[in-house]
Amino acid sequence: MTLRESAAVISPVGFAESTRVSPEGAVVGPLPHVKATTPVASALAKHAGQPAPPDRNYQVEVEEGLLACVSCGAWFPIIASIPEILPDHLRDWEKEGAWLAERRPQLPADVADALARFRPANASDAGAHHKLAEISLPSKITDPAFFGPGYVSPFNLWTPEHTWHLIRNFAVAEPLLEVPRGGVVLDAGSGYSWTTEWMLRSGYEPIGMDICRTYLEIAVARIGVNRPHLVVGETEHLPMRATSVDAVIAFEAFHHIPDRKRAMVEFNRVLKARCPVVLVEPGGAHEHAAVSVEVMDKYGTLEKGMELEDVMAYAEGTGLGECRQQEIQRREIRMNGDRRQPLDQMVPVVANNIYTLRKN
What we know:
The strands form 3 sheets. This protein has a 7-stranded mixed beta sheet with strand order 7-6-5-8-9-13-10, sandwiched between helices. It has a 4-stranded antiparallel beta sheet with strand order 1-2-3-4, with helices on one face. The longest helix has 14 residues, at 160-173. Helix content is 28%, strand content 22%. Helix 1 runs antiparallel to helix 3 (109-116). It folds into 2 domains: 2-116, no CATH class; 128-359, Vaccinia Virus protein VP39 (Rossmann fold). By secondary structure, it is α/β, with parallel strands linked by helices.
């Protein structure tokens, strides 16, 4: 459902076709073929616009709108170009209800009535307090420079060594994704989404997803209109169809997830057959580091590192297998007069652990 739109400049060449957004002025977008007979489905079908011509594919940015499920009646807002598709128990229903009520006059009456009938599921999970802490993180930040690096990410003018740590890790991880030209990559926990941005500019079709909206807003400000898909979502309840993704990457993000087996089940669900998951994560000692303990105490987020045996345990019984830790090493060189002499020992190139799994 498009309420406002502005021209974008992402080229459609090489990407898969999708249902194109209706021409400007249409209130309800084109409706995919569905068999549902719910009130939401009937109301949307009545007002649905026709698909736009091919030249609008990837050329329109929805600034504000709604996504609705014709089967269950659930609806999700698109605010400032970012869809928010969180599970019911992590949504701020008072805030979102007020948002919908404010836009009701712009909707056909039967559509608005059908959406208003939706009632959230009465559910929760054991790690919800960590997730809510991530969502509300901006309200706890007092340092005005806290989010500053995001506007130039991955570059950090104050810690160049961390900048190159990130770039080295990503350069090693990217080939492990095995993504074809135009392939869909889920960047789970994308944060400032520089990894998502680089994958788009490399010819992939990535989806950057994070539970904290502020990170994605900074990504929008940094990248501009020629940017990848960005969505507020949660890894244990991925907002995407089964078998729709060519690869999943979690870049310094999986160690924040409370229920990692549930996340692995979701990775397996959305991946196509034989496609990989790549985790770039700190080791098991991470949670005991002073800075990690301080962050957990101060913000309530989770900082739990992992080793290979942990990843194997998370994946067991989920449909993901072939779990491996990638050994990325190089031989250091030192100068001995005019001769370059290799050291006897091997030293790691990257500080993080890199794990790969594959859908069976």
